[in-house]
Amino acid sequence: MSKVQMLLSLKKQRLTAAAEEIFALFEQTITELEEELSFSKEENERLQKRLDADLQPQLRIHRADV
Q1: Which of 30, 46, 50, 63 has the fewest CB atoms found within 10 Å of its own CB?
Q2: Would the pTM of this model clear 0.70, i.e. be above it?
Q3: 2, part of any domain
């Protein structure tokens, strides 16, 4: 194997390793963002229910004894 071929092979190996590392970090970031999004959705639902309950008018009818 010539020096040029060895250098090309080394370059390919390093680029492949770098791409794999970047892809792994990308997957990790996506997983973290999905977890954060899920938490945010749950929190939004909880707050929406609380807001709906707070804004829902309470109608109370008191009967007058006749």
Answers
A1: 63
A2: no
A3: no
